[in-house]
Design brief:
277 residues; alpha/beta; globular; binds iron/sulfur cluster
């Protein structure tokens, strides 16, 4: 079957992570080089028959963890996507600081990646451990420095989570201070949701009560509004982030969804969520 797409954006799902976070029910599995090579082979076939045109405006490589791929495999992923990125204005990749280094930063520059989204989640090391993250806040700063110095990427977004079990308003404010001090222009805010297929869902972990969750959200939005940091969750801040290219979900072509299905059918991959737009 040939599919010709009029989509103006590509979303590429990399279904691997080095560790599985407690709250996660995304479509992912623990990384192995062998599996990653099989997935790249499937992706190459998928790209061939989908016949994507070259007039794509934005590319977003997410997951999973794209940087879980070892540098040679990440290089192959970029080469597979190269035919579709010549006219791209915004080329984003998600990063877990635990799997990032100078070699990967140089690949970003080589292939024209110009935006990065980093999972910070919280600046509290105990909370990071509790949710199953294997990096520290300092690793996030090292990642930002590598992106600026080796990739020439300054358009950086940090993911922050709130309503985590045991999280206080002070933790939320400290995390925002960390974001502000890092000098990044954008933050993505995520309230904890307990998905039935996640480790938290299976072990009965609960988010905070709804009132506290709402208070944390409002505090974060007011901190954003009082700073230069944008967040897509607030209409006012969205307007301020006018340099971002926003594409409706209907204009996005999901790449790797079928390659991922192959791994899911073989019960290698668990987790149902490919992307929430
Ligand atoms: S939250 Fe992100 S890094 Fe953690 S397991 Fe899920 S996809 Fe991987």
């Amino acid at each position: 079957m040939m599919i010709t797409s009029k989509a103006s954006a590509l979303y590429v799902h990399v279904p691997f992570c080095r560790h599985i976070c407690g709250y996660c029910d995304f479509c992912r599995t623990v990384y192995s080089s062998e599996l990653a090579e099989q997935w790249l082979n499937a992706l190459e076939t998928e790209l061939e028959y989908k016949k994507i045109h070259s007039d794509i405006q934005t590319v977003y490589i997410g997951g999973g963890t794209p940087t879980s791929l070892e540098a040679p495999l990440l290089d192959r992923l970029f080469r597979l996507l190269e035919p579709y990125t010549s006219n791209v204005q915004e080329y984003t990749i998600e990063i877990n600081p635990e799997t990032f280094d100078g070699k990967k930063a140089e690949l970003f520059k080589q292939y024209g990646v110009n935006r990065a989204s980093i999972g910070l989640q919280t600046a509290n090391e105990k909370l990071l451990k509790m949710i199953g993250r294997h990096h520290t806040p300092e690793d996030v700063l090292d990642t930002i420095n590598l992106l600026r110095s080796l990739s020439d990427i300054h358009n950086i977004s940090l993911d922050l989570m709130y309503s985590l079990p045991g999280q206080t308003m002070q933790d939320v404010e400290d995390a925002f201070d960390f974001v502000r001090n890092s000098g990044v222009p954008h933050v993505s805010l995520y309230s904890l949701t307990i998905e039935p297929g996640s480790v938290f869902g299976k072990t009965g972990k609960e988010p905070l009560d709804e009132d506290t969750e709402a208070d944390m959200y409002e505090r974060l939005i007011s901190l954003c509004e009082a700073s230069d940091i944008t967040s897509m969750r607030s209409p006012a801040l969205r307007k301020r982030a006018a340099n971002r290219i926003i594409i409706k979900p209907t204009g996005i072509m999901m790449i790797s969804s079928e390659s991922v299905q192959v791994l899911r059918a073989r019960k290698i991959i668990s987790g149902m969520i490919i992307r929430r737009f």
